[in-house]
Amino acid sequence: MKPLHAKLMRDLWRIKAQAMAIMVVIGIGVALQIMMSGFVASLTQTRDAYYERHQLADIFAPVVRAPNYVLGRLTEISGIRTVETRISSIASINLAGQDSPISARLLSLPLNGRRHLNEVRLSDGRFPNVQRPEEVMLLESFASAHQIVPGDRIEVTLNGSRRQFDVVGTAQSPEFIYFAAPGELIPDDARFAVIWMGRPALAAAMNLEGAFNEVLVSLLRGANKNAVLDRLDQELESFGTPGAFGLEDFSSDRFLSEEISGLAVTASTVPPVFMAVAAFLLYIVTSRMVRSEREEIGLIKAFGYSDTEVASHYLQLVLIIAVMGAALGCLLGVSLGRAMVPIYTTYYKLPFLIFRLEVASFVSGMLISISVASLGGFLALKGIFRLTPAEAMRPPTPPDFSKSISFQGALIRRLDQPTRMVLRRILRQPWRMLGAIIGISAGMALSLAMLIIYDGFDEAIDQTFNVIDRSDATVSFVSNAPQKVLYELGRLSGVEHVEPVRFVPVVFRNGVRSYKGTITGLGPEPVLNRALDSDLKPISLPKEGIVLSTPLADILSVSIGDDLTLEIREGQQPHVVTRVAGIADSLLGSPAFMDLTSLSRQIRTPGHLSGAFISVEDGWQSSVYAALKDMPAVAGISQRTEAERAFQKVMDQGAGSARFIMGFMAFAITFGIVYNVARVAQDESARDLASLRVMGFSHAEAVFVLLGELAVVTLIAIPIGLSLGTSFSHIIAAGFSTDLYQIPVVFAPKAYGSSIAVVVFATAFSGWLVQRGIRRTDITLALKSRE
Amino acid sequence: MANDAAISPKLAFEVEKLTKTYGEGRSAVHALRGADLEVGDGEIVVLLGPSGSGKSTLLNILGGLDRATSGSVLFKSQNLTEMNDRELTLYRRRHVGFVFQFYNLMPSLTARENVELVTEIAENPITAEEALSLVGLTKRIDHFPAQLSGGEQQRVAIARAIAKQPDVLFCDEPTGALDSTTGRAVLRVLQDVNEALGTTVLIITHAAATAAMADRVIHFADGQINKVELNEVRASAEEIHW
Ligand SMILES: Nc1ncnc2c1ncn2[C@@H]1O[C@H](COP(=O)(O)OP(=O)(O)OP(=O)(O)O)[C@@H](O)[C@H]1O
Ligand SMILES: [Mg+2]
Fold first, then answer.
1. Are residues A592 and A665 in the same domain?
2. Is residue B121 part of a domain?
3. Were A223 and a residue from A173, A219, A269, A473 both cysteine, which residue would form a disulfide, CB within 3.0 to 4.6 Å?
4. Looking at the structure, do residues A80 and A200 belong to the same domain, yes or no?
């Protein structure tokens, strides 16, 4: 082995602990990037592959009732590849032990076994026999949430009558990857059901023999989607269509896309913050590592090695660490990604998910580590190359302490020698200290930001379910019930408060910007479910105009006083122009609020209600829910506790789940940085410490010089870390916020306290490791040479 | 190759009005204040002088490790003071062997590897084993500097300097840490190299007796050359006592 290679290997071995700490820090930065971008890529590709394999329709067109012969006309529309019809309906499942009925989608399975659109994927059991009207198939996620298995029987209220069905199989479908029950924002497996059954039986039950009520269309490549949508609307107009819509407006796909794009935002905002911190540390450590080799560099140059040869030797050293760190990160990122696959497949109802390594993020992680390490090494080398070999080789000139004038005073003489050394070391090398301070504060900032984010998630839940919505349950009515149902609800014993609500599907339009959403019509001065402003004060809904939530106003790019077009997708489907009268704060969804009376007048169907918010006296819950279950006008009940649980699940298992890994990574980075700073200081002062020991100072006094410096650096870093962490938390909160929910940055004294504790602990532990290292080195060895 | 200064009047070094100042203003240290000097090719030169008189500074400049503040240094008609960094590097690589006052071994390399660090880039080196056996260190060849005594480290440094068979050998107190027997052995090695290869050898020492083995003895005081003595007859290393 060539001597320089031997030196390289032994130097690496000598600094192994520190090298490992650097690799961990840079590795985590890279791992996070790879894991997050991998999720985005994997989910996107899996979704696309799943859609394609199961031929998910590009367009959905509901109608009230259209005879089968209409299909022939539809096939002639240009741009269409396949068009199929089916029967779709709503039913409710009555499960034993459930307080309230659960509403379910009923879908017809096609007659023959040929390939068709929206194919379902058998999970367990078998497909229903089309000749047997009592055989059905159940959505797998719902079945497993209620432990229903093939062979079980379920009771369904279908078109007003109760019927028993045999569950012969369970299935997954690309149509229902991610779905919330009607009128609910948050997906909840236990509360969203799909029943597939033979078309003849369903047609008979729904009085739709020889007819259909939904059209599915797949498009030819390059077809003009809008043109097809328009043609479909024309063809189906006389059959009562509320309008055909594309897959992107279909709830499951929209939810999933929002989750993926939320994850993409997280992936592109949060990992860079981590990576920047890791890169900064890498820079500091590599430059200091090279600088500490000044004498060796001078010596090698004295022998006639050229600058290039010397530089390549030292760059190899730092690059090995950088590249190994990045490679380690890649490995870690992929393993973490793989480990999370089961969570994602269960959560997103995907039949498979192959974790993909995003080459671009691997390459960028590698490049960042390599260039940062090279830069650190290179700049340090440049400084040393400016010296002649004679200057570089000279044993470190005793620093010129005469420049620290302020230390000549009387005060200084009262301090003992070790304390003076600590202070002088710090004041002599302010730039080096600054690097250490920024490094530690950046590491601390990451931990703090993650702790603030944890509180933000809790706050989002608390605000949504305890401040904005204070009801105990949301009752949804069978298609637009009359006003009098409210009084019936109010008369139930145990019900304290009843407030009406009307949900109206709508397309908001402001010029080219549009959003398919829902208007929530609320009664006058509601107390249970309210629109709140940014100070969480209730907004009283004006008699005219609409109040938009902040995210919706952003999507549509409107502010108070602007006009907005509402394309109502219900009843006569009028288009209405209204004024934005206020902006409400919302952490969940993108709601819009209107006064109920004004909304009903606008859509010309006064008196109709979609549901009600109720509050129930303690102890009366089960009797109230039992009574509601028997009311014909009641389609479903969503209890707040269940909704809150579902929301918590979305945040803990969906895009938000990465926060737990990130939190852990932030702590690891914080520790890695503090340990590195301590180690570098130890290396740099090894000789001083050994001299002190030789002169008769105790181990404790010698260690004090080193740890005193570390303590001062940490103390200065803490306030900087607190403010830097607050800034980071804004970036990270924005990264975690999706179209579905917003993560607020809350002032969290506990998070601040905990982050200080993390840094102090990391400092104490690093200090302990370092002093143990010093105790182990033989003082005579340290005097003879560096090691 | 000639090993006799009388037959070969060629000069290895011609130094004129060399000055070296460290620092500036009031804290400036004038390490060299206009030194003039000639060194014949193939000579053994001994530099004597009190501590701080500028010996190491002169050696560093002649060896291409440091730059003069003013004056000129000719090495066989090449002007060192006008060379750029790259040329100085090549000069050190091709012509110069060094024994430093503080040994300066690479702590993470063994004795053998410390020597190989230099032979690796030399044009006509002897092997590290040969060089180390010349200084009597065959047994400790795979030890690290931290495992060697001061004198042993010094001998590794000498082996390292002679292994490349340089044109000029600069030795800053090569026997400072050695007992007289080992010291004589080391001087013997230097004399052998000088005689066998015609290497010019410059030795800084505090042991005035060493002067007996030199062709030329240069006395230093306060950054200037006081006196140059030329010896007609050189003593052999074995005759030197201190
Ligand atoms: N880097 C430097 N900065 C300032 N002054 C220096 C520096 N290096 C050497 N000197 C000064 O230059 C003068 C000559 O130093 P030099 O090392 O050449 O002495 P020397 O003759 O080799 O002494 P010794 O026998 O003690 O090794 C001394 O006064 C020394 O203090
Ligand atoms: Mg000297």
1. no
2. yes
3. A219
4. yes
Question: Is B124 within the bounds of a domain?
Answer: yes
Q: Which bound ligand lies closest to the C-alpha atom of B218?
A: 1
In a domain, A168, yes or no: yes
Shortest alpha-carbon distance between residue B7 and chain A (Å): 31
Give the Cα separation of A130 and A390 in Å (integer): 94
B104 to A389: CB separation less than 8 angstroms, yes or no: no
Taking only residues 108 to 147 of chain B, the set having a beta carbon closer than 8 angstroms to any beta carbon of chain A reads 108-110, 113-114, 116-118, 120-121, 145-146
CA distance B239 to chain A (A): 32
| Residue A215 domain boundaries | 53-252
User: Is the CB of residue A153 less than 8 Å from the CB of residue A167?
Assistant: yes
Q: Is it the case that residue A630 has pLDDT exceeding 90?
A: no
Domain ends where: A252, A280, A296? A252
Q: What is the per-residue pLDDT across A136-185, written as a single tens digit (0 to 9) for each?
A: 999 999 999 899 999 999 999 887 788 899 999 999 999 988 777 666 66
Distance B54 CA to ligand 1 centre (A): 6
C-alpha closest to that of B218 among B78, B26, B13? B13
Residue B20 inside a domain? The answer is yes
The band of A627, judged by pLDDT with boundaries at 50, 70 and 90, is confident
The per-residue pLDDT for range A9-24, each reduced to its tens digit, is 998 898 888 888 889 9
Select from A294, A388, A397, A402 the residue to mutate for testing ligand 1; criterion: most ligand atoms less than 8 Å from CB: A397
Mutate to test the pocket of ligand 1, among B22, B48, B65, B66 (most ligand atoms within 8 A of CB): B22
Asked if the model's pLDDT at residue A661 lies above 90, the reply is: no
pLDDT in the model for residue A518: 87
CA atoms within a 13 Å half-sphere pointing along the CA-CB vector of A761: 11
Distances (CA, A) of A689 to A294, A427, A525, B145, B176: 19, 18, 74, 20, 27
The answer to the question of residue A488 being in a domain is no
Counted domains in chain A: 3
Residue A334 falls inside a structural domain: no
Whether residues A95 and A243 fall in one domain: yes
Average pLDDT over residues A690-694: 75
ipTM surpassing 0.95, yes or no? no
- Phi and psi dihedrals of A728, rounded to 5? -55, -40
Q: Are residues A159 and A233 in the same domain?
A: yes
Domain count, chain B: 1
What residue ranges of chain B have pLDDT lower than 50? 1-8
What burial class does residue A381 get, using C-beta atoms within 10 Å of its C-beta: 0-12 exposed, 13-18 middle, 19+ buried?
buried
Tell whether A112 and A227 lie within a shared domain.
yes
- Same domain flag for A164 and A63: yes
Say if residue A129 is in the same domain as residue A221.
Answer: yes
Phi-psi region of A588 (alpha: psi -120 to 50; beta: other; left: phi over 0): beta
